[in-house]
Specification:
453 residues; alpha/beta; eight-stranded mixed sheet; 22% strand
Length: 453
């Protein structure tokens, strides 16, 4: 018997904020000045802010919601390099050496974030959870084998592969044809993590204003409803960027996913899910993949979507999509059909046309850096850190390594202007599929006299 017919539409992580008191940050109601302004309180903006700790600069951060209240704090909290692109897809696009460089970016993001959480004892449900990529059908089996070959070619040695029979020893599921597992990945409560980092920033003298949306910016000044911030440098790391702020908004696309959470699992249910007693964060090989993991209090997080709703322009709140995902999950885990899913919530993840992030410094605005389309917490953490270190003049080596991959001047399969003809959702779905399965990129030569971000 199932009990999730009337799931509440509510972000579960919001509920967990009631456990701990965090610092109050009222909205900005005056005009102020600072050395650095950061717009956006997700993982990009907060990791950028963290780079300025103890650097002797005055830093202000503004967020239109609460810190973590948008895409970052609605996510499943997977700390894994995998997002929309598997390693074997990057090897096809860029070759072994470049794929290894790109993959290093989210790995560094994970290391940076975990170090911060552990050093400052941020209470955010951090769990060490291996990653397990699950193949479906013969195509999924081939994808697992490709991932194994590419990880070995890049130099990784920690991966383990499983056939259908071996998988049942570590995962109480049926219907998966293969799997590949690797370590050094984690799960986290993303909203509690960002609120904990917020407290850390404030304790170190930064000014943080929640419920403060940037309505426009001119030159060095960002204007809000009741105040303004004038800064020497500005980092804009917001999701769903408005074209009234910058034409770079046309480079930002949205993929919609859905998440749900259960009541805490019993010991028996935990043994069914992970028979070997080792927790993992899992996702499958579908284009719009299903993913799941346990939280620190042993609730099951389950997420996914459909090919249609993934590319919708606006948020879709119908629980029917999540119920289909739950039904499919129960098909793989028939012994867990009585799990009670109590809440579900949708989220729109920012992406770019080719699924890699964009860091941009627009011509004539050398004091401004935009961060766009970071899919996954590790990518966002790295890009925020990278942009801040650019401002500090500490990222030249990284710039030489990453300008090919993260510049908005890189080559794309289809131009953003085509979206005016066929619509942004259709343009994104075409680019998304092409980037994941067919795209091959050529690398440009570095021009030392001009920095693109």
């Amino acid at each position: 018997m199932t009990h999730d017919v009337r799931m509440v539409n509510q972000n579960w992580w919001i509920t967990t904020l009631m456990i701990k008191e965090h610092k109050h940050c009222p909205p900005l109601t005056r005009d102020i000045e600072c050395d650095v302004l950061i717009v956006g309180g997700g993982f990009s903006g907060m990791s950028a802010a963290a780079e300025f700790l103890r650097k002797g600069l005055s830093v202000v951060l503004i967020e239109k919601n609460i810190i973590g209240g948008s895409s970052s704090g609605r996510s499943a909290g997977f700390l894994t390099p995998d997002s929309e692109l598997e390693l074997h897809q990057l090897v096809r696009r860029y070759g072994v050496k470049s794929a290894g460089e790109i993959w290093e970016a989210p790995c560094r993001g994970i290391d940076r974030l975990v170090e911060t959480i552990q050093k400052h004892d941020i209470q955010c449900g951090l769990l060490k959870q291996d990653s397990l990529f699950l193949g479906l059908g013969s195509g999924g089996k081939d994808a697992v084998e490709s991932e194994r070959e590419c990880r070995e070619s890049v130099g990784f040695t920690d991966q383990r592969t499983y056939d259908e029979t071996q998988l049942r020893e570590i995962l109480g599921a049926q219907g998966y044809t293969a799997g590949i597992r690797y370590a050094a990945t984690y799960g986290v409560n993303p909203l509690a993590c960002l609120q904990g980092i917020k407290d850390l920033l404030i304790e170190n003298g930064m000014q943080v204003f929640e419920s403060t949306e940037m309505e426009r910016f001119e030159d060095h000044t960002a204007y809000t409803h009741a105040g303004s911030v004038t800064a020497d440098n500005i980092i804009i790391a917001v999701d769903k960027l408005s074209d009234s702020i910058s034409p770079l908004a046309h480079e930002s696309f949205h993929a919609q996913t859905f998440l749900s959470v259960t009541e805490p699992l019993t010991d028996k249910e935990l043994r069914i899910l992970f028979p070997a007693g080792e927790q993992m964060q899992c996702w499958d090989s579908k284009l719009v993949y299903t993913y799941f993991r346990l939280t620190a209090d042993n609730r099951l997080l389950l997420g996914g979507g459909t090919p249609i709703t993934t590319f919708l322009k606006d948020a879709y709140n119908n629980p029917g999509i999540m119920k289909r995902i739950i039904k499919d999950f129960r098909g793989h885990f028939p012994e867990l059909t009585d799990l009670s899913f109590i809440q579900f919530w949708p989220g729109q993840i920012d992406m770019t046309r080719d699924l890699l992030p964009v860091i941009a410094r627009p011509p004539g605005q050398e004091h401004v850096r935009f961060i766009l389309g970071c899919v996954g917490i590790p990518w966002a953490t790295f890009c925020g850190s990278f942009a801040a270190r650019n401002v500090l003049g500490e990222a030249d080596e990284d710039y030489r390594k990453y300008f090919n991959y993260f510049s908005n001047r890189r080559a794309f399969a289809l131009p953003s202007s085509l979206g005016k003809v066929i619509g942004k959702p259709m343009l994104f779905s075409l680019n998304n599929s092409w980037a994941k399965f067919y795209q091959v990129d050529s690398l440009r030569s570095l021009t030392e006299h001009e920095k693109e971000f």
